[in-house]
Specification:
The protein has 25 helices and no strands. With about 525 residues, the protein is mainly alpha-helical. Among the domains are: about 55-180, Nucleotidyltransferases  domain 2 (Four Helix Bundle (Hemerythrin (Met), subunit A), Up-down Bundle), CATH 1.20.120.330; about 190-265, no CATH class; about 390-520, no CATH class. The chain starts with 16 loop residues before the first helix and ends in a 7-residue tail after the last helix.
């Protein structure tokens, strides 16, 4: 839909499509009723449980969810109108325009029943949007009353223009509404001394952050990071630290959130929380989640993390301790994810990890299926091992901790659920374990241990069998590199055909050979 600029805030939590349809149906049927009654309010005398009529029993969070669902429907309908307009489906365009008109009025009425202190600017945009929707409906009604192609052609550009204006007004109104609600919640957190009220406001704020990056930007711009770190510096709100930190981690997925974090010395606050043994494990875990978020190698904006280096040693020390003492797989995952990201962020972190015996702690955790219980956790561990393996001292630590056996096992990583996220995690585990083997095998002792554990046959299998590596090119490249490194140390471990095809040619030629290889089932 190139002609329309629909709001990016319409990103709702992904759910099953049938469930989404069932939920939307409630709103759609309300809309059809409103069409019949020409937008007159529906009496609720005998229907007090009507989910579409908002009353005091609804929380701010529920109201905002309803508003966002209604807005998502309007956004979708506007897109569909543009598609039908292109095909000159005038009857459909008109019926959908009437429906949008009703949805817009319903959304505005619903919102005005629960919002506090709406601004004059919001009222102005509400009026502009309602007027433009009425004008839009009038235009499309005239189109279904004529069959003159010339008149319809001349009106089409006018309707397109009106549709674009409706979309713009709608986007601006939603932006104002969401900003207003974020301001209300943050003001509530700032002014309240009550744990219950503050908890409720933070919960609603967290729900907003789950609706996508656009809402996180709004919250950050309105000072959300500053407000939440104030909570994390007050002992009277200690019980709310996990929830507050979880919300901070969500906001810090956007650049605006990161800049705010830097301004309020957020990293120092996180370091204080992580190193304070009086805090609960849940608080430490959520602090680790914030660290994992702000050090993510996928983020393009990391220049703000200069202050991170100042606190890195104590943060890394606290995270290693959290990995060692983790009581659940989730806690270990958060702590190890933070460590994995930090090893990308600065090579000094790997040296600190070596000094802290982190290798031994991580390898021991992997033998406890209660703690390292998913491919996602193993992905974090092998990432740390791969990044640490550039250090020469790492080889002896790996051998002492039975790490080669673990890397061999990781070459067999398979998804149990078949979900795309888990399959991708398994691919990363296979790739990084091969990378780690390739790096460590420069040490003859490691290479010898790998050969004895039959790593070479497994690497050959991964190269030759696309299904074993889930057709992953990155796994193939890593396995070819590891195989070539081991072949140098132990050439007798390969058959001549494997040597001629997988080791002797240029890596790119072996890669092309393996990607075009048909599997033999003989």
């Amino acid at each position: 839909l190139s002609s329309l600029s629909l709001p990016s805030s319409m990103h709702l939590i992904q759910v099953d499509s049938v469930q989404r349809w069932m939920e939307d149906l409630k709103l759609m049927t309300d809309c059809e009723c409103m069409c019949i009654l020409q937008s007159k309010p529906i009496s609720i005398e005998k229907d007090e449980q009507n989910e579409l009529m908002l009353s005091s029993q609804y929380s701010t969070c529920d109201n905002l969810q309803l508003l966002l669902k209604r807005a998502w429907i309007i956004s979708t309908e506007l897109t569909r109108i543009a598609q039908k307009l292109e095909k000159n489906r005038w009857q459909r365009v008109h019926s959908m325009t009437v429906r949008v008109n009703c949805h817009v009025r319903s959304m505005i009425n619903e919102y005005n029943t629960f919002t506090r202190n709406p601004s004059e600017e919001m009222h102005q945009f509400e009026k502009l949007l309602i007027d433009k929707c009425s004008e839009f409906t009038a235009f499309t009604e005239r189109c279904i009353q004529t069959e003159d192609e010339e008149i319809l052609k001349s009106m089409k550009s006018c309707i397109n223009e009106t549709l674009t204006t409706v979309a713009q007004y709608f986007g601006q109104l939603i932006e104002l509404v969401l900003t207003h609600e974020a301001q209300n919640l943050l003001r509530q957190i700032e002014l309240s001394d009550s744990v219950h009220v503050t908890e409720s406001a933070i919960s609603s704020l967290f729900s907003l952050t789950q609706e996508g990056a656009h809402l996180c930007r709004i919250i950050a711009k309105e000072g959300g990071v500053v407000t939440l770190f104030k909570i994390c510096r007050q002992d009277c709100f200690r019980c709310l630290y996990p929830q507050t930190l979880r919300t901070l981690a969500s906001i810090c997925c956007v650049e605006e959130g990161m800049h705010q974090l830097e301004k309020v010395d957020g990293i120092l606050c996180l370091a204080d929380i992580l190193t304070d043994n009086s805090h609960s494990e849940a608080t430490h875990a959520e602090a680790a989640a914030v660290i994992a978020q702000i050090t993510s190698p996928h983020l393009t904006f990391t220049q703000h993390l200069s202050s991170f280096l100042e606190n890195m040693e104590e943060i890394v020390t606290a995270l290693v301790k959290l990995c060692q003492e983790a009581s659940s797989g989730e806690v270990f995952l958060l702590a190890s994810a933070a460590l994995a990201n930090i090893t990308f962020f600065d090579t000094m972190a790997c040296e600190i990890l070596l000094q802290l015996n982190a290798m031994k702690i991580l390898l021991a955790a992997c033998s406890d299926k209660r703690i390292v219980d998913t491919p996602y956790s193993r992905d974090q561990v092998v990432t740390i091992l791969a990044n640490m393996s550039v250090l020469d001292q790492c080889a002896s630590e790996i051998i002492q901790g039975n790490g080669i056996q673990l890397l061999m096992e990781m070459l067999f990583e398979k998804s149990s659920s078949g979900s795309s996220a888990e399959v991708a995690a398994c691919e990363r585990v296979q790739q990084k374990s091969a990378v780690t083997l390739a790096r460590l095998s420069r040490d003859p002792e490691v290479a010898d241990a790998a050969v004895k554990l039959s790593c070479i046959p497994r690497l050959i299998k991964l190269c030759r069998s696309p299904t074993e590596r889930n057709n992953s090119d990155s796994v193939l490249v890593a396995c070819l590199a590891a195989l070539r490194r081991l072949a140098v140390m132990s050439p007798e471990g390969l058959e001549d055909s494997d040597f001629q095809q997988l080791v002797k040619p240029r890596l790119v030629d072996s890669f092309l050979l393996c990607t075009n290889m048909e599997e033999s089932f003989v």
